[in-house]
Amino acid sequence: MLITFKCRSTPDVMMLENLAQYLVGIIGKHLGQRGVITHDELDEAIRRLEEAIVFDKKEIAEKDGHFHEGEEGHEPHELPIGLAQRAYPFLDMLRTAKRENTDVLWGV
């Protein structure tokens, strides 16, 4: 199922329900049928999401160890897609909503 986040100051952001639930949980909200992140909550929401992204990047770097691209005896591989890439459209929406003093809604 797709969840659509709406904000008057940005284009809609659509994502799968499991990702939406994860991201909304990071910022301290529950993904119900309808919800809102008010402009007063945006500073804390952005801070929490940015902290989660930094933590995720650290974990990926620790798990992956040294990236062996082009080294003899190592198969080439890509770095896994992390939270930073998955969360970027949502984080961008939150930042713009904060700048424009608007709310972020879903389920409307």
Automatic annotation (TrEMBL):
Protein source organism: Trinickia symbiotica
InterPro entries the record matches: DUF1840
Protein name: DUF1840 domain-containing protein
